[in-house]
Amino acid sequence: MNGHLDKVKARIPHREPFLFVDRILEQAEGRIVTERTVRADEPQFQGHYPGSPLMPGVLLCEACFQTGAMLLSGAGAPPADVLRAPRPQTGPGVSIRSRGRLPHWEREGGTYFVTWRLADSLPAKVRDQIARERDDIVLTAKHLKRDLTAAERERLEALHTEKIEALLNAGYGECHLKRVDCAAVVADTLLKFDGQRYDLHAWCVMPNHVHVVFQARPGCALADILHSWKSFTAKACNKLLGRTGTFWMDESFDRLIRDETEFGRFVEYTLQNPVAAGLSGWKWVGTGSAGEAPASPTAAGGAPASPTAAGGAPASRRKPVLTRILEAKFRGMVAPGDVLRVEVEQEEKMGDAFVMNGKVSCAGKNVLRVKFIVAMIEI
Q: pTM for this one?
């Protein structure tokens, strides 16, 4: 439950006891389905028919609104399941190469999740400790003259995702990519050959590291793409900063994505990384040619785009707000213990307002249909 609820809270600002969505079941363009388990300890039941509690109709409407708000919300890009997933990375053709400490799984036209970080993004003591543990896993397999086991590969990934990511999100080091000009250099570099050498699915430039999910074009190797990204951006950012020396850590983390489940997980992780790190209004995140709604942080001609939304209001302050219920039809009662399925579809867009249709069902029976308007306003 907690993992699902965290994803909900990353989309909308509502919190208990006025949060009426537990999890996202599915989402496509213009449509979202969520679920809600009605619990007996919720505060509204203390005064709404005590002894024979019923869920107030207005809160069923609120569940529809919050679901609709999630359809409009996000980190500047559609969620993972709206994006076109690549073909599964299974079958022959997978090769294992070593470019330093870690083995790297690659294949022609493979789809990858990659992370690289600034040279000072981890304390030296922690970096050395993690390196020793990684080396021990790899050297043990080499000593026994065998490939890494599935458990060993999972442990290597856990060292990255559990330890390193937590430290990266804490913002250790000088965090050069907090500077707009440096972040723009990295973002523009990722987008420059999108659709030519590779197809971007998701990317995020954080203050001290970068995440990218992409599919390499035939004839374009993972190592060459990463070298191009890191080499050009290191030189350009050092020039902007008036410094010399190592900019990026030599070793990068990469994972060959093998199926659509992994693909969705890594795309969502990438797009939600600013939220997880507590970066409000962070604009250096988006999709590319492989997504339904490409998002570039730069305007035509390469100039940084203005961090404002339509009407000149800062994008980080524009939120979806229910402005009017047009029609509501109640067809049943909801009691504690019931599991609600909430389905919302976008019907029409009118400037900054959206007309939406909501439906709440319980055990396969419709209990509410509602039409409402949500507007994106500055709050």
A: 0.50
